Protein: FHA domain-containing protein
Amino acid sequence: MQIRVTVLGPGVADGVDVAISAPAGTPLSAVVGSLASAVSPGGSAPGAVFCEDRRLDPARCLLGQPPLVDGAVLSLHRPLEGPGAEPVPARLLVASGPDAGGVHLLRGGTATIGRSADADIPLDDPDVSRLHCSLTLGSDGTIAVADLGSTNGTWLDGRPVRERPVLLPPGGILRLGESALRVLTADERPAPPALALGGPPALPTTRPVEPGAPEPGAPDEPPPTRVQRRVGLGGWGRRSGGRPPQAPPAGEPAEAAPAARVAPAEESRWPDLAALLLLAVESGPRLWERGPDSPDAYGVRLGTAQSPADGLPPVTVSLPAVGSLGLAGPRERITGLARAVLAQLAGLHPPSALELVVLAPGRAEEWSWLGWLPHTRPARGQDCRLLLGFDDEQAAARLRELAEIERPPAGAAPRRRSVVLVDGPLSAPAAGQLARLAAEGPAAGVHLLCLAETPPATPSSPVAETLDAARAAHPAFASCGAVGLLSGAVATAVRLVGPDGRPGQPASADAVSPAWVERFARALAPLREDGAGGGPGGGAAPGAAPLPESCRLLDVLELSRVTPGALRERWAAGTELPVVLGVGERGPVWFGLGEARDPLLVEGGPRSGRTEALNALAASLAATHGPRELSLLLVEGAGEGLAPSAELPQVASYLGATDPVRIRAFAQALRGELKRRALLLGGTAFAVGTAGGPGGAAGMGDDGRGRGEGRGRGEGRAEGPGRFGRFGDEIAPAGGELAEGRVVAPRSGGEPLGWGGAQDAGPEPAMRAPGSAPLPWLVVLVDDLPALVSPPLGAPGRQAAGSMLRALDAVRREGPALGVRLVLAGGPPAGDDPLRLASASRLLLAGAPLGRAELRTPDGARTPVQTGRITGRIPRTATLRPTVTRLDWARLGDPPARRPVRELGNGPTDIALLASAAARAASTRETASATPV
Ligand SMILES: Nc1ncnc2c1ncn2[C@@H]1O[C@H](COP(=O)(O)OP(=O)(O)OP(=O)(O)O)[C@@H](O)[C@H]1O
Structure:
């Protein structure tokens, strides 16, 4: 699991962005020291860690769980300002204009609005006066606005506001300069979150530290200022403490409010930027509302018409209709407008419908915020961490990937579109490719957003000339079907030039600040779409990370140093039958074998790692249950691939496919065991098998033992699994040799052989009444199933194949109720044996990289997993230790560094280590239980 967070510390004004990689469920305490040294090398571990104003308990806060999710801002030593717990009566939203998107919490009192940094609500709009107007929130909830002698005036719903306070009607729109503001009262809050899996971090702003009252343990340094500067979301009530409400001068009551204004439908279809920020931080219902077929899909609003009357009629452009969009004007203004456009696209479209790609060599600083968005994660197998092109090589790679996107069939629309930000000069070959992409891309759903620096369109630089300048600046610009041309002396207006080349009326351009957009992107960072499985449209969870190329099972099991003590602890805690298969996008991937009533099929081509996956399954089971609670039967269809697992003390029998006599005897013994269990249970079903309902259960646990919130997990289990009779001698042939070539585990003297628990039994308890003594789980693992059930002519096991198939089929039918489970590995489907057909859950191995698979369960979930390696020789140092690395945004477009786990040619294998520790754990456990107290 990997999460990306920003860490603020003393003396680090801007904070440090880091990536934390750790097994899911790792507590914050494991990385606190590394976080401190990432902020200031050599720095000591902080006394306190805060997420906003909340102090975190490093031992209990887990990485990957809120609030420690992608995009979080952590502060060492000092708290940041949070939104506060107390309800806010109203919020002032900057709906449009050159500094749009701001959301200011109104807590009561009077606040000034103006261009000056001294204003309670600063507004970066050149047409706004330094102190332009004031708002007063009365104790009765009314809001009054008064002009403060501004140069360009204050307008409320198209009517001028003077110095005498005027009441703001619900929905009223204030215009000052090019900006439009509105107030959202507590009653008008958006509906609660409907979509997000993980809550976004709440709004961080710095909390002013009272002079003379430093935080406990805080060094004597100014509080970090970065978030305040970058966030653009503040509450004046908090910052200024709010001035006491000022009643209008005596005899001058505030003017009566005009009637409430209802936004026309057209306006509501296009959320303004402040509404968009609220959608993101509160995961509002309109977040990601537009799918590929939605009426306004891939449309953006560039600003609002400067209508003399009230209202904010949006000026919009549809990317599918125009192909590509160019923005031309002075740098500062086009980047603000481009941020607003990209934020709208990311806020309204889910990553399954939209991919964002960046081509901006040398401009990582300006555009790295896009890297927080889930839309810049590669979802089509692109060879990079993020779809960013910040140097020529990365840009070339992005262009190649875009060129590979295929057109949909004639008449069909693309299901997912790519919007490509193009900013800055590209190398000559890349520019040629880009020109082709601009011409041919839209048909395949690839749309450019091209920025060109020009002077604003003014009388001295008329539209036609400005457009020519833009086209000269950028070869792809000529292919843009629409251009947003910034105009006016201060370039805060925009004129939309459509495909016909005619410029529209000037409108107030929307633009957002770098601080705003960073805040916005961080809020989206931990969100993933709801749904099953990974990939486009799939629901990974917060903190989803690409799968590793290889995965050591013992690390995922958190048994990097596997000791008898650690195993005994596990065995004491284990009651169900979870199998950890490997690592997924979010951490360990487990399969609830106990709840699965049908066989689990491990499938894949030759040399895809099926045998390894089966060994890993056996190892994972052996890590959860001791030999008393679990018996494993290993059956080979061909070869000896399962031999490494045969050393596990839980293995009651290991059958090679060479001797028909033994195979037949084994099949007979297996049927005998089913009968014995049925007798012992006397009609009562084995509890776990019946409680879990049909089908399997799969999911991602968060602690390596599959104890995460399980999907489809059985409930209502009366007792622990296997709390039934334990017995096995009626199937054991005389002489102690079970019906196969080899009984693996050495047995204590006099113990009858059988599958009712291996080796650990000590003095065999007398057969007891059903329910009075443990009956262990029995798991049958079969490798190379096709070779076993339909061996080629001349194969030694051929004569016995029929009896084996019938026995396994009996296990399939009767096993679920008797605590017996079946795991089968085979090649791609061949034939239609009932076993394969009945396998509802499948682990499909992809072939490359080795061990890569997808777990498919009957509930439709598809979980990508890198299956665990267990038979390799892996140095002790190659563990999944938590690491903290500084994020270099400029390099995230590179192919990820591949560091396969080194496997040494000598030393014990992991499965041998596990088997030896398990054998010792079993024998000491036995000694302990035999010692009289
Ligand atoms: N997850 C993995 N990581 C690294 N190496 C692996 C992994 N899984 C398997 N291997 C290696 O790949 C090779 C093939 O694996 P394995 O024998 O498990 O595949 P198989 O699908 O059972 O092959 P066969 O077609 O021979 O039955 C072996 O050398 C094994 O050590």
Residues 550, 604, 606-612, 641, 850-851, 867, 869, 871 surround adenosine-5'-triphosphate (CB under 6 Å).
